[in-house]
């Protein structure tokens, strides 16, 4: 295969061809004080640099000048001696060059391509393809694929097939891998999609990033049809050739506005407002942190809605709301801390914050203290917990854990496969919308 065919029409070729040598750029004049050619050329000559390695890039208006040589690009905003000195441009070039040279000298191609500017990644991959150890060619390409946001259909099928991952760290059911795709396009167009994901929440993100509600699709893909599995960036991407998927179904998710209307019509919205008014910033370790006011409000909203979707009665909704208000106030950090539930309950008791009947205190305590434990540990404690209805407690435990978990979307750590209740899946789109459009509530 002639690897140069891979470059035909690719955006990276267009980028390199679009760079104008400074000799040509001089014809444009001073460019409002941004282009002092002669003084800059003199400064470069004193530092043993040549103006032939500097270019003008009119596609980058914020930093239209750059150093470009071999496998290195460094951008900067003005071609003046003052700018070159102030921004330490030459030192940046030397440092970046030294790192790339060291990686090449050590034949460390993984590091070399990790350091490389994405605009040159494909050009350099083709250039060094024969030098890259054959067992590394596939992994390096797919890391670049994820990093550079390339599109599969810009490459010849033969080239991609030659880089197909032979050993996938995946286990598929007899029907294949269950995968998802988020899009604003039609069902017909989705059959031509080459990027799928194992994580439905990632699909929802791509469905909603350009508008409040896109479309989410689901299918199964045979393992032998998968070209690559890319777990980096927590997107769990599955790459297939367009047309490799057959039976695609659309998953219906209701929007945040739908559920808010539902809460209002059923009287749950007023309950949310009443409890939200009791959230006080002074009782939190970091009120504006990831476990502070916003998190508490989101969990309160989700727990009331999820409780209603699972047919919890008014008393249970109040227990869930009370738990949401104070489940994280005992935190003294934002790290993994399986003991902060106990500290939160003790703090709420000390401050006399609870507004629940005495006979319900034991249940609230169980929910707060176990919300930060794994399910198995929580179940063991449930078997020993005094004075509570265990069936009721188990249901509320699942509801609260899922409501708390849904808000992990804010830290890009929501794994929908860990949700316990089918009703929780219904709220995945709403969770994403509340993150992107907080004014909805």
Summing up helix and strand content along with how strands pair, one would put the structural category as alpha+beta
The overall average pLDDT, rounded, is 89
Helix content: 40-55%
β-strand number: 10
| Large-scale geometry | elongated
Strand content: 5-15%
Question: How are the strands of the largest sheet arranged?
Answer: 1-2-3-4
Radius of gyration: 28 Å
Largest sheet: 4 strands, antiparallel
N→C terminal distance: 57 Å
- Helical segment count: 21
Low-confidence segments, given as residue ranges, are none
Q: Explain this structure to me?
A:
It is a single chain. With about 450 residues, this protein is of the alpha+beta class. The protein contains 21 helices and 10 strands. It has helices spanning about 10-20, 20-25, 35-45, 80-85, 90-105, 110-115, 120-125, 135-150, 155-160, 185-190, 200-210, 255-265, 270-275, 295-310, 315-325, 340-350, 360-370, 375-385, 390-405, 420-425, 430-435; strands at about 20, 55, 65-70, 70-75, 175-185, 195, 215-220, 225-230, 235-240, 250. Helix 11 (about 200-210) crosses helix 21 (about 430-435). It starts with 10 loop residues before the first helix and ends in a 5-residue tail after the last helix. The mean pLDDT is about 90.
């Amino acid at each position: 295969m002639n690897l140069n065919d891979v470059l035909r029409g690719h955006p990276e070729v267009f980028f390199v061809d679009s760079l104008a040598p400074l000799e040509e750029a001089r014809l444009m004049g001073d460019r409002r004080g941004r282009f002092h050619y002669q003084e800059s050329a003199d400064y470069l000559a004193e530092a043993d640099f040549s103006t032939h390695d500097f270019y003008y890039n009119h596609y980058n208006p914020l930093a239209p000048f750059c150093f470009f040589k071999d496998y290195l690009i460094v951008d900067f905003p003005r071609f003046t001696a003052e700018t070159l000195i102030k921004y330490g441009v030459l030192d940046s070039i030397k440092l970046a060059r030294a790192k790339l040279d060291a990686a090449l000298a050590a034949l460390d191609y993984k590091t070399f391509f990790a350091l490389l500017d994405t605009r040159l990644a494909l050009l350099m991959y083709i250039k060094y393809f024969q030098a890259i150890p054959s067992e590394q060619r596939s992994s390096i390409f797919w890391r670049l694929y994820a990093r550079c946001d390339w599109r599969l259909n810009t490459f010849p099928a033969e080239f991609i097939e030659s880089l197909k991952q032979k050993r996938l760290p995946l286990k598929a059911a007899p029907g294949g891998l269950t995968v998802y795709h988020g899009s604003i396009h039609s069902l017909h167009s989705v059959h031509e999609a080459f990027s799928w994901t194992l994580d439905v929440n990632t699909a929802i993100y791509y469905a909603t990033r350009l508008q409040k509600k896109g479309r989410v699709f689901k299918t199964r893909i045979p393992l032998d049809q998968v070209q690559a599995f890319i777990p980096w960036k927590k997107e769990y991407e599955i790459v297939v050739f367009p047309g490799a998927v057959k039976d695609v179904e659309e998953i219906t998710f209701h929007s945040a506005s739908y559920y808010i209307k539902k809460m209002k019509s059923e009287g749950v919205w007023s309950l949310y407002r009443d409890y939200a008014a009791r959230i006080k910033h002074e009782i939190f370790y970091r009120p504006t942190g990831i476990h502070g006011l916003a998190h508490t409000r989101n969990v309160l909203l989700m727990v009331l809605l999820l409780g209603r979707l699972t047919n919890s009665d008014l008393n249970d909704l109040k227990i869930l709301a009370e738990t949401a208000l104070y489940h994280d106030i005992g935190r003294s950090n934002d790290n993994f801390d399986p003991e902060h539930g106990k500290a939160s309950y003790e703090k709420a008791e000390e401050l006399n914050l609870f507004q629940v009947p005495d006979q319900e205190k034991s249940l609230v305590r169980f929910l707060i203290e176990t919300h930060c434990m794994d399910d198995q540990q929580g179940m063991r404690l449930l078997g020993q917990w005094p004075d509570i209805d265990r069936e009721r407690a188990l249901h509320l435990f699942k509801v609260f854990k899922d409501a708390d978990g849904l808000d992990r979307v804010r830290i890009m750590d929501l794994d929908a496969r860990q949700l316990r209740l089918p009703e929780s899946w219904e709220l995945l789109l709403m969770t994403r919308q509340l993150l992107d459009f907080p004014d909805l509530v």
